[in-house]
Amino acid sequence: MDEKLMHRRLRRTAVIIVLISLLLILLEGIAMISLQKNLNETIKQRITGEAEEYQGMIMDQIYANLQSLNTLASFIRRGDLDDQEYFARRIDEANKSNDFISMMFIGCDGLNILSTLGQPIQVGFNRDKVGEEVSQLIDRNMNGEMGVSQMYLSKVVDATVFVYGVPVYDEDGNMLGSLLASDNIDVFFDMLNGSNVLNGAGVLHLVNQDGQFLIRSPQMIVQKEINSIFDGPYWSGEDEKQKARTALQNQQSFFSSFQYDGDTYQFLLEPVGVNGWYLFCLNTPQSLSGDIYSMVRIMQIVFFIVLLMFVLLMIYGYRSLRRHNRELRRLAYHDQLTGSDNMVRFKQKLQARLERSEGLSVIAFNIRRFKFINELFGKEQADLLLQYIATVFAQHVREGEFFCRDAADSFYVCLSDTDNGRVLEWIQSFMDEIGYTTERYNSNYRVVLYCGVEVCQDGSCLDEQMLTHALFALENAKGTHSDNIVFYDSQLQEKQQLENRIESRMHAALKNGEFRMFLQPKVHLEDGKLSGAEALVRWVSDSGQTFYPDQFIPLFERNGFCIQLDIYMVELACRQIRSWIDHGIQPVPISVNQSRTLFFTLDYLEKLTGLLSRYQVDAGMITLEVLEGIALENVDQLNLRIEQLHQLGFRVSMDDFGSGYSSLNTLARLNIDELKLDRAFLMEISGGSGERTRLIMEQIIQMVQHLGISTVVEGVETEENDRMIRDMGCDFGQGYYYSRPIPADEFSKRFMQQ
Ligand code: C2E
Ligand code: CA
Ligand code: CA
Question: Ligand 1 pocket: which residues have CB below 6 Å?
């Protein structure tokens, strides 16, 4: 997966998680707020209900006291006032038999009597001596109204009291005066202080219109010495205080809540209806609302836990997704063996640099004869070598440069340098280090690398194209023996263009018969007679241009077209033999080159037998030449194939022996019929290192003959070559000395007698 896409997905997942979490938090918030609102409403209703009940109780008490005072008043006759002593005693007795602190009679005609518990009765005192609060009440009584006075501090009883007062009429309904009784506010104390206030979870105080405590329950929540509710911590601010004051002045209820000691409390100020008194009713949240409260709390906790778990789960999911992605990226972008980048990553990095229009060089590396290293030193050693090369790459690349291993022994490096000279220097120092170290530690085997370089000066190249060019240059480096390092240039470009042309036309060319069979004779050295011919392909295009195998065979081997071409060449060989036979000419066997890929295709044998029967040609007339390199891969597999071919009657020859690394041991295990010694042997002998090579050649020929395999020496160019190989005891010779490869017709004319 593309890295950007992966990041985008990760980011999207993270955003979704955050959004869902926020949404859940919001939902929880809304749910909690509405629950809290409901809870507050419920609490308010319950407090109000409770407060009203107590208010009723207070009013009942006051009403009951007023009633009993009224009853007393109704017994008073005008005549009673005449005997002042007697009347005073009656008042005193009445006082004692009630729960009042004091009783007072204020007559219209100036008879004033005051009975105070534990004090002598006062008769005829001046009415002006009574306080303002009582005086107002007396006036109301005189007007025929009964009522209760404001609270005041009584000097007589030395306590804060209030007074009930009723009008007194004579039998004829004329006003006689006012009968008053004082009472301590404490009469309400027990009532308010009952432990069952708000189911035992509430506190009731009595306050006056100014917010001053009249009765402060000892079970107070706020344990502070305060006189007024406005001095306490019941308010969220001045604003609220002001609202409460206004409500008190207007005798309205006021509901609110406050925080104290980490808890939230609700309170209600409920007017009692007398004297501006207020019930100040508070609840302890935990128990007032009981079930509902705990339900809400449980819900809050459950919701919070669920949310927490969800968020944790999401975070866990997100993290494991990230880990998973990282692992995927590691797998997707790294080479398992060396730990370096792989091709996918390399291309991404290359693309990024080219997008920034940065000049750079791309170098493709291969190890020379890597398969051989694998076979000779074992897979483990070969793996170690690859790892070692990756380490050296890592040491040699500079900031911003990078490399990768693609497959097998294929490495790519991207350098920031674009100067051919400096790039070459870099490659050489790198190669020297690899060669030097491997030679020291690997049984004196010096690992040789070859590489192809593509330089892009201004960054205006395409990544794919750069890689193709580097590879193309690498292929060329492989092809030449002299140079390990090849820069892609105009010449190579032309070559590539040619390949492109060839590739686009090869199928049509095959159909049009543009591939021609040239034959080169194989000569029996003992008597110089023709013993056979090798079929070599030439491509004569319809424009008359001739292409040689070197120009297209490597390409066809890469793109697989060789499979078709080689079979076609077998067909041409069969056709030629048929033609000779049909013309009454004694045919000679023809050798046909077979590429590795064709040799192991599944229907190879059927294709061959198909051609034999079609042209009625004996399989013994066809020799199949395979390259030496094929033996390096799997001897058993190769032998199996050779065995199958033998059963059909074909002969199998090993081509170019000595050009690669096949050992004589390997050779000894192969069931081939013929061995063709590479022309490099003769080249070397005439080149200088003559004697040694000659000896080797001789040894090979002798050994191979012992194995019953016939020998052919290729590249015989001179009479001297011819004599030498004859002396060595070689069976056959092939080379320009006898003839160059020539068109089949010409060959027939020159070498085949009727
Ligand atoms: P090869 O099979 O080793 O063929 C021998 C090559 O050496 C031929 O080159 C031939 O022209 C050349 N040669 C022969 N005698 C001499 C000599 O005395 N001196 C020198 N310097 N060269 C000599 P050619 O025809 O260009 O073929 C090159 C290679 O292409 C062949 O090497 C063979 O590997 C491949 N090839 C040719 N035709 C086919 C084909 O039909 N199918 C396949 N798969 N490969 C083919
Ligand atoms: Ca050959
Ligand atoms: Ca050859």
Answer: 520, 536-537, 548-550, 553, 562, 566, 569, 593, 595, 655-656, 679, 714-717, 735-736, 741
